[in-house]
Amino acid sequence: MRLTGRGLRCVRGGREVFADLDFDAVAGEAVAVVGANGAGKTSLLRLIAGLLALAGGSIALEGGDSELTLPEQAHYLGHRDALKPSLSVAENLIFWQQFLGGEPADAQSSLAAVGLGHIAHLPAAYLSAGQRRRLSLARLTAVKRPLWLLDEPTSALDAEGQAMFARLMTAHLESGGLLVAATHTPLGIAARELRIGGAA
Amino acid sequence: MRLTGRGLRCVRGGREVFADLDFDAVAGEAVAVVGANGAGKTSLLRLIAGLLALAGGSIALEGGDSELTLPEQAHYLGHRDALKPSLSVAENLIFWQQFLGGEPADAQSSLAAVGLGHIAHLPAAYLSAGQRRRLSLARLTAVKRPLWLLDEPTSALDAEGQAMFARLMTAHLESGGLLVAATHTPLGIAARELRIGGAA
Amino acid sequence: MTLGPYASFIVWSYAVCALVVAILIVWVALDYRKQQAKLRALDAAGVSRRSKRNAAEVS
Amino acid sequence: MTALLAMIRRDIKIALRVGGGALIGVLFFLAVVVLMPFAIGPDLALLQRLGPAVLWLGALLASLLTLDRLFMADHEDGSLDLIAMSRTPLEFACAAKALAHWLAAGLPLVVATPVLGLLLNLDGSASLAIAATLLVGTPALTFTGMIGAALAVTLHRGGLLMAVLVLPLSIPVLIFGVAAAGAAITGPVSFGTPFQILCALSLASMVIGPFAAAASLRQGLD
Amino acid sequence: MTALLAMIRRDIKIALRVGGGALIGVLFFLAVVVLMPFAIGPDLALLQRLGPAVLWLGALLASLLTLDRLFMADHEDGSLDLIAMSRTPLEFACAAKALAHWLAAGLPLVVATPVLGLLLNLDGSASLAIAATLLVGTPALTFTGMIGAALAVTLHRGGLLMAVLVLPLSIPVLIFGVAAAGAAITGPVSFGTPFQILCALSLASMVIGPFAAAASLRQGLD
Amino acid sequence: MTLIDLANPTRFLKLTERLLPWLAGLTALLLAIGLAQSALAPDDYQQGATVKIMFVHVPNAWLSMFVWGIMSLSALGTLVWRHPLADVAAKAAAPIGAAFTFLALVTGSLWGRPMWGTYWEWDARLTSMLILFLMYLGLIALWRAVEDPSRAARAAAIFTLVGAINLPIIKFSVDWWNTLHQPASVLRVGGPALDKSFLIPLLVMAIAFSLLFITLHLAAMRNEILRRRVRALQMLQAAEQQGQLRSGAL
Ligand code: HEM
Ligand SMILES: Nc1ncnc2c1ncn2[C@@H]1O[C@H](COP(=O)(O)OP(=O)(O)OP(=O)(O)O)[C@@H](O)[C@H]1O
Ligand SMILES: Nc1ncnc2c1ncn2[C@@H]1O[C@H](COP(=O)(O)OP(=O)(O)OP(=O)(O)O)[C@@H](O)[C@H]1O
Ligand SMILES: [Mg+2]
Ligand SMILES: [Mg+2]
Predict the structure, then answer these.
(1) What percent of chain E has pLDDT over 70?
(2) Residue owning the nearest CA to atom 2 of ligand 2
(3) Alpha carbon of B32 to those of B70, B182, B188, B194: distances in Å?
(4) Domain limits at E192?
(5) Which of B19, D216, F32, F72 has its CB surrounded by the most CB atoms within 10 Å?
(6) Count of domains forming chain D
(7) Does F18 touch chain A (CB under 8 A)?
(8) What is the pLDDT of residues D131-173, one digit of tens each?
(9) Do residue B95 and residue E18 have CB atoms under 8 angstroms apart?
(10) Which atom of ligand 2 approaches the CA of E222 most closely?
(11) In chain D, count of helices (H) and strands (E)?
C-alpha cells in the first residue's frame, strides 16, 4: 500500500498555506510531518482525510480497498477528541466502534490497552487531558483502518503513555499499516520526516 | 514571595485525587509538577487558582499584595485557551488586557514577542493550534502578575516557540516572579520537581 | 350529615387528597425498601466495613 | 444499519442526559401552555379557540430551542469530522440524527398533548385530533429545522440567525397543522385535507432535509 | 470600570458578529410577528387584540433562544475561569454580560416595535406604548434569564431544562408587560399601575439576577 | 429546623428510626379527629356544605408555602454552612411540597366551581400558586437531571432562594390586587375572623397535615441518606475493583 500526494496546494481563509507539496508514504513506514507553528501540518492531514478541499494537486492511495474512498480507510485523530462528556468512557468508545464498523467485542480490551480499563464506567467529563487523549487513541485499535492520520498524538500523554502509544504504532506498522503524524516532539519510533515550510 | 501548600486534599466527582500534599514555591524558582495522567496536576493548579474548592489543607501566598486574594495575583493558563474565534488576535489580547487590568499600550509588543505580530488582524478562528497557544502566552506578558500557573504550556509549540517561551519564563523568574507548571515534557529551564502520585 | 347540591365536589376534594397522600406514603415506603435491598446487596458483595464508615462520611 | 442505530441510540442518550430526560420536554410544554393565558388574557372561550395554535407554537418553540445545537455540538468536539469520513453516507447520518432528536424532543410532546388539552379546555376528541396532527407534523419541524442547524455550522453562526432561517420554512407546517387541528374542533372545514397536506409536508421534508443538511455540512467542513 | 466596559464591548461585538448583527434580531422579531397570523388565523380584530401579546412573546422567545449560551460559551472556552479569578467582582461581571446581551438582543427589538406594530394593525400611540413597555420590561427578561443561564453552567445541562427553570420566573414580567400594553390600547384599565410594576420587576431582577448568577457560577466552578 | 443540629447522618438515622412510628401514630390520630370534626362542622350560611372543602384546601395551601420556606432555609444551610443534611432535607421536601401544591390547586378548583362558577380563573392568587407548582416541578426536574448530588444541591439551593420571592406574592396577592379569592381570615393582623365552629376543625386539620408532612419528610430524608450511602458504596466498590485491576495490570 502506498499513499502519494503530488503538487498539493492548500488555501485556507483566502491565504495560501503551502503549494507544490509532494509526499509519499509506504506501508510499514511512519511519516512525521514537521514544521513551524502555522506551517500547515494540520492542514495537510485534513487534506488527506478529505476534510479540506484541495486547491490543487492530487492525493491517491494505491493498493487499498478499491470499493472505499481514501477517507473511509483512514483514522483521523485531531486536537478535538470527538468525545461526549455525558457518555461514559465505554459508551463513547463503543459508539465509535459501532458507527465506524468494528466488532463490538473488543471495546474493553481496547480500553485496557490504553490504560483506561479501570475507569470505563466514568463519564468522559471526568477525564483528565491525558486520559481523554488515551480514549481517542483507543479508537485506533478498536476499529481497524490501514491509514492513520495523527495530529500531535503524543501531546498530554505521560511517559508511560508515550511508550504505550509507540507500541501501538509499531504494531500497526508491522501489520502493514500506513501512518502520517504531525508532531513537534519525537514520536518514539523511527519515522521519515516530511518538512513543511522550510527550516523555520 | 513564597507560595506554600500544606496538607492539601483534592476530591473531584466524589473521588479522592490526592491527599496530604505539601509544596513550596519561592520567588525566582520554577516548580514543575509531574506525574502520571490523571494523577492530579491540573487539579492542583486549579486548587491554587481558586477554581476548585479545597477538600482539606491550606494554600497561602506570603509577601504578595495584601489587598488582593491569591487568585487575583495569578495567571492561569489552562488547556482551554479563553479565545473567542470571532474576535481578531489583537482584539482577543486587548480584551484580556483591559479586563485583567494591564496597560493597553503594549498589546502589539506582547504579540510580537510571541511571534504573532504579523497576524494580529486575523480572526482567532484562523489560528493553528500552536498559534492559539502563543496567543494565550501573550497574556502572560501583557498583564503583569507575580504568580504564573501553567498547565502543559509547551504543548503544540514548535522548537522555536519553546525557546521563546523559555526566555519568557526566565525573564519572569528573574524579575522575582513565581511559576508553577504542570508538564510531561522538559520545560526548557531549570525547575524543581514536584511529583504527584508516586512514580507511576 | 348532608352535603347539599355540591356533594360531588366535596367528595372529590377529599378523595383526591386521600389518593395523593396514599401515593406519597407508598412512594416513601417502596423507596425505603429499595434502598435497603441495595445496601444488603452491597454488603453481600463484601464492600468492607472500613469503606462503609468512609461512605457514611462522604454522603 | 448498525451504524445508524448506534447514532440514534447515542443521540437519544445524550439528549435525555443533558436535557434532563423526556419529562423536561413535557414540563416545558406545560410551561408554554400555562404561559399563553398570561400573554393572551384570561378569556376561556378565546383560549379554547386558540388551543391548537398554542400547542403548535409550543412544539415549534421546543424544536427551535433544541435544534440549534444539533450539529454544532458535534462540530465543536470534532465528531462531525469522523462522521463525514465514515462509510455511512452523510445523508443517512443526518437523517438518523434528526430522527433521534424527534424521538427525544418531539414524541414526548405528542404524548403529553391530551393531558395539556385539559388545561386549554379542549374536549377529549379534540385533544386526540391535535395529538394526531402533532404526531404527523412535528417530524416536518425537525427535518426542516435540521437544514437551519446545518447552515449554522457552515456559517459559523448561531443564535437567532438559525431561527430566522428556519421560521419561514416551518410556516407551511404551522398553517396546515393548526388548520387540521382547528378543523377537528370546530369542524366546518374538513379535517382530512389539511391533515393529508401535513403528512405530505412531513414526507417531503424527510427526503429533502437530510440531503440539504448533508450538502450544507460538506460545504462547511474546514 | 475599564474592565466592565471592556467586557460589555467584547460581548456586544461577539453577539453582533456571531448572531449576524442587530438586524437578525429584528428579522427574527419580524418572522415571529408574521408567523402569528398563520397560527391564529387571519382575523384582523383578533390580531389587533393579541398584538401586544405577540410582541411580548417574540421578545421572550428571542431572549430564551439566545440566553442559554450566555455563560456556557465562556465556560467552554475557559474564559469563565479567568473572569472568576480577576479583580472584578463576579457579580459586576455578570451584570455587565447581561447588559451587553440586552443591548445586542433586547434593544433592537424595542426599536423595531413601532414598525412591526403597523403589521399588527396597531396605531402609532399604541405601538409607542408597547415599545415603552418592552423597553422597561425586557431587561427583566434578560436578568432573570441570566439566572437560568448560570444554573446551566453549574449543572452541565442545557436545552429545555433551562427554559423550564426560567419560564416560571418570567411569567410575572409577561403578565404585567402585556397588561400594560393592553391597557395602552384598549384603555379601561390604567396604564400606570402595571407599567410601574413592570419597572419594579426590572429593577428587582437587576439586583437579584447578578447575585444569584454569580453565586451559582461560583458553586459551579470545577 | 429541628434537624439541623443532628449533624451526623448516622445519628439522624438512629433517631428517625425511633421517632417515625410515634409520629405516624400521632398523625393518624389527629387526622381522624380532624376528619370527624370537619364532618360534624355546621354548614356555612353562605357557602353551605362546600365549606367542608376548606378543611383540606387551606392546610394544603399553607403547607405548600411552608414547605418552600423549609427548603429555603435548607438552601441557606447548603450554601452557607455546606451541610450535607441540608441538601438531603431540601431534596426530600420537593416532591412532598409539589404534592401539597397540587392538592391546594385541585381542591381550590373544586371549590371554585360551586362558589365562583368556574374551575379556573387567571387571577393573582391562583396564578402565583400555579407558578409555585411549576417551580416545584422545575426543582424536581433539576434534582433528577444531575447525578452528582452536591452539585445539584447547590444549584437547587440558588433556584429555591430565587423562587422564595414568590411566597410573599402568594400571601399578599389578595391584598395587593382585587381578586376573586377571599382575603386572609385566619393568618392576619388582628386575629382570626372565623367562627369557632370552623376555626377549630381547620386548626386541627392544619396540625394534622403538618405532622403528616414532618413524618413523610423524615422518612424521605432517611431514604435519601440511604440512597447516598448506596451511591458512595458503589463508588468505593468501583474504586476497589480499579485497585485490583491496577495491581493486576502492573
Ligand atoms: C385553584 C384555586 C385556588 C387556589 C390556588 C387557592 C390558593 C390558596 C392559598 C395559597 C391560600 C393560603 C393563603 C394564605 O395563607 O394567606 C388559600 C387560602 C384560602 N382559600 Fe384558597 N385557593 C383557591 C380557591 C379557593 C376558593 C374557590 C375558595 C372559596 C371560595 C378559597 C378559600 C380560601 C380560604 C377561606 C382560605 C383561607 C384564608 C385565610 O384564612 O387566610 N380558595 N387559598
Ligand atoms: N471535572 C472533573 N470531575 C470529576 N473528576 C475529574 C474531573 N477532572 C478530572 N477528574 C479526575 O481527577 C483526576 C485528576 O485529574 P487531573 O486533570 O488533575 O489530572 P492530570 O494530572 O492533570 O492529568 P493529565 O496528565 O492527564 O493532564 C483524574 O483521575 C480525573 O479522572
Ligand atoms: N480554519 C481556518 N481558517 C483559515 N485559516 C486557517 C484555519 N486554520 C488554520 N489556518 C491557517 O492555516 C495555516 C496553517 O494552519 P495549520 O493548522 O495547518 O498549521 P500547523 O502546521 O498545524 O500549525 P501548529 O504547529 O501550530 O499546529 C496557519 O497560518 C493558519 O493561520
Ligand atoms: Mg496543527
Ligand atoms: Mg492535566
Answers:
(1) 94
(2) A126
(3) 19, 6, 11, 6
(4) 2-220
(5) D216
(6) 1
(7) no
(8) 888 999 999 999 998 998 898 888 777 667 777 788 888 888 8
(9) no
(10) 1
(11) 10, 0
